[in-house]
Amino acid sequence: MTLNKKQFITVALIFLALKLSSVGLDIVFIPYQGTTKKIVTEHFIILFPEDYKDIAQKTANYCEDVHKKLVPFMKWKPYEKTTVVLSDHTDYPNGLGFPFFRNTMVLYLSPFDMELSLQDIHDPLYTLIVHEYTHVLHLDQIRGGAFFWRVLYGKLYSPNSGSFAWYMEGTAVLSESMNSPNGRLNSTYNDAIIRNDALKNDLPNFDEIVGVTEGAYQYGARFINYIYTTYGKEKFEMFYTDISNDFWPFILQFVFKFKKIYKKPLKVLWNEWRDYEIEQAKKYYETKKENIKESEKLTNLGGDIFSFSKKNELIYFSNSSTKYDKYLYKFNTKTKELKKIKYGYFNSVSATNNDDYILYTRTSVYAGGFVYYELYSFNQKKRLEKKLTHKKRISFVSFSPKSDSGVFVSNRSKGAELYSAKFKDGEILNINQINLPSDIVFIDQPSVNDTGDMAVFSARNKSGFFRLYIADLITSETILLNDSIIMKNVKWIDDHSVSFVAADSDHTTNSLYICNLNTMEITKAAETAGCIYNGLVIEDKAYFVDLTYSGMHIFETYLSNKNTPAELEIYYNFEKKISRFNAEIKEYKIKNYSGFRYLYPGIWGFLPYLLNSTFNYSIGNSIIQLPVLIAPYFFILNTTPLGRFTYAATVGFDYMKLYPDNTFSFRLKLPFINVIYEWSNWKGGTKFFLNNQLYSIDYNGQYPINFSNDLEFYYSYRLWGYNSLGWNAKIMHDFHQFDLYYDNNTKQYEKTGIKNRLGFYLSTDYGYITRRNKSVRWDGGFLAGLDFYFYPRQILDNLPVYLLKGSVELRAPVKAAFFFLYIEGGIDLLNYNNYYINTDIIRWEDSVLNEYKTIFNVIDTKAFPNRLTVNGSKFISADMGFNISLYKKSKYWHFLTMGFKELYLRPFVEFVYLYNSDPLHNILFDTSCELGANLFVAYGNITFTLIFGNALGYRINDLFPSWNIYFYLSAGIM
Length: 974
Known about the structure:
Number of strands: 57
Low-confidence stretches: 1-24, 568-578, 849-853
Shape: globular
Structural class: alpha+beta
Helix content: 10-25%
Mean pLDDT: 87
Oligomer: single chain
Radius of gyration: 31 Å
Number of helices: 11
Distance between the termini: 21 Å
Strand content: over 45%
């Protein structure tokens, strides 16, 4: 598609609102979870599902307390109330804080303990609010000359949003660690990552931490903490307040600010911090090395290991790594053989008493936007998976390897539930809920003994601490075994002892311990220079998951000091000398929520846009068009805080025809259907200058008034695994005051009688898509689609059109490349020649603001120029080739908040057979080669792809081949 007016505006919007574009126009969508209510406090508006009123009251109190701390800490007080949205639609803990449209925080209420890096958080809700409100206060700041853009565009421009992601997240993590009972800077996970990378001199450069990844939180926080403690709070504050004064929104020279504020380049400061961490890591290792026993590394996958279960000589575990992707594995400790069982993200895995079956939990996607963990069984012989629960949100599972009994856990925002069950032939039977103490809010991975009558587990109570519990699966009762040790991942050793993981006294690492349940005596089973996150003890050996510089691995070691009592350091009570919320929960009045109250424009402003009038210059027999006529364009837009309703309206004055071009659109998201309505109004015809002479294409000096109405219904369903199914139905209405056509007899433009047309578009698509972790695009699977586009006869002034088109695309990964095959075919049911071939020289495609639309009856080729007029009633085409990565490394450019992701080569061949009265002549084929570069901006989520290509093609019976050089620019969201 060539660049048009609407897309030109989109380009400008992208560069004006980097953060806004990075998450799409709607910013966020909150699924329907019942009637939405609100609480209004002095500085916040809390929106929440009615069933979560208790959490909402707590949130309102926490928010006001956090506001008092952070306003002086961040040197900024918002001009308006901050909207806080509570949602429990996913089992992935998360939160969002942004200033666009309005200051907003979105808090996912799923338990933080589901995320490895957040398991040391003492009061998750409070810490989450501190983190996200820091983002709001940080990004909302705008001062001095930069405030000009706030007046001109509303809540569109935020100077600090152009900073590196590690700086924004590092600032928020520093704040959460200083202003809440705990934070990631006080976690064993953060200490272990930094320490291990420092020991191997593997700490990344600042320009290699791309996007909002785990590295942005962990490395960014430690660097920000270093400059905060070393150079002082004053310079820390001066840095972001200085950025908030930046007038120019397009290129934020972030790196140069360090030289200005700290009198040192960022690279020098970063190396200072890196040297400091290396020195601290070496000192730490010297104090620990005498106690570290030799151990054998059993796996070498890297990434994160979320769960593992041992039966006889086999260890089952789930792994997610940037090197080997996400898989469920089986490791034989005797033969050292590692086998992949199944691809996907698995949270918990358990062996069973049946060697053919394992149980695991993984995410399921439900209609309406809900993402929950569910319980599955898997037959390893038949390779059959069976879903055992529906919307039960099963976090963990553990069954006895020698009996048919086991338990599974459901962790929700309102508390935890524990169930016992029997297992037989891939099914769970006799499900029974276990009675739990009322103060339990989260249950960690449980363990069931060999006889299947007892389950042991650690659980977080309402005070925020993990304690040791045991559940009798016969009586369904639970008792507290120990209330003085913070322990996690408890597993049976025998009937009288368990292993568990606990932190040391200074909270810098975790070790594996053994507890005698009769005497409560504690001994240390394994200690490392890294950080142990999971483990089990079998006879005289310990198997444990250790966090090393290259990720998590499973190790095996002998218990040489099994009977040596552990140090008393593990008996500490993790109380921090830090301010926290201690007041009684104030009861705020609960009110009804109406999203329509938020429909005032949140973003507004003027932008330039291109008229369809042009300057034309003749050079020889060719005419060069220059679209340089630019008109003023006013836009307003907003979205409700829940993201369910979004609107945009524009007015552009076409001064050549003295008429405004108007558009209005809205989007409505519902549980099982989404609706888009678009209206536009303009004057047709053109004016153009040719060699400084003004010409017009009109009728007796009159330009026709046109308008269109489009109503679209669509939805996409996530099925099992990586499958998706989507559908689309669209009604298209066009009104034309008159249409012009050129009469060859009179040599003048004449009017047609067509005034109204009403068309329809139906489509469905199905896809099975996988992608390697390091891939920039999806590189495995297939997409198939079927489209029907028609204007029925005898409706309004329709000329009948009935076009049917289908396509399928297949991709297969091959080392650093992937092979692709794209086949497309179409038929005009009335046998008219409505399909035609087109080749662009310059193309702009945009999926950031959902502006990219394909032209239904166009066959896209690369080698054949626009002057090649070939039409047909049927066609089939095929593209086949490779996408080859030449260089791939995410890296920022130092002086911009832009960066580089990948350089790739795309050689392929195209074939088209277009049927008409001369079918043989309309066989076309070409060979194309494209050189592409993927770039990114801001958070790293907005990607730009630059493609330069050339193609050589031939049409049967032509005298000469065809050649084309083309350049494409596209923008999208990763």
